[in-house]
Amino acid sequence: MARMNSKADIDTEIARLETVLPRLVAELPPEEVLKAFAAEAEALNANAPAEHEAYIARRLNCMLASAGPVPGETEGEPCPAGGKDSPLASDG
Predict the structure, then answer these.
(1) 3-state SS string over the chain?
(2) How high is the pLDDT of residue 67?
(3) Quick check: 29 and 35 in contact, CB under 8 A?
(4) Does residue 22 fall inside a structural domain?
(5) What is the number of domains present in the chain?
(6) Is residue 65 assigned to a domain?
(7) What is the pLDDT of residues 13-72, one digit of tens each?
(8) For the chain, what is the radius of gyration of the CA atoms?
């Protein structure tokens, strides 16, 4: 996958991951969900510009918390929903 330089590219990939995670939770044993999700998110994490890394980490952590594989919210911050309309969409 090419480097994701734009916020739109990143949000598109995050949206894809938001659709993938519920399927993984439904289809896999709980102990395999994180590993499978990490594999799905690998390209996003590996190809994102440094200035978007914190935004991506927050969004992925929130997805995992919402879906159940990870307890709680991300470091006390509210978890936003959606991509371009997210309050975090202006980060970086």
Answers:
(1) CCCCCCHHHHHHHHHHHHHHHHHHHHHCCHHHHHHHHHHHHHHHHHHCCHHHHHHHHHHHHHHHHHHCCCCCCCCCCCCCCCCCCCHHHHCC
(2) 84
(3) no
(4) yes
(5) 1
(6) yes
(7) 999 999 999 999 999 998 899 999 999 999 898 888 899 999 999 999 888 888 877 766
(8) 13
Within-domain flag for 83:
no
Structure tokens at 55: 């935004």
The residue range of the domain holding 31 is: 7-70
From CA 56, how far away is CA 2, in angstroms rounded?
16
> Tokens representing 83?
């991509």
CA distance 75 to 59: 12
Q: Give this prediction's pTM.
A: 0.74
Task: Report how far residue 47's alpha carbon sits from residue 49's, in angstroms, rounded to the nearest whole number.
Answer: 7
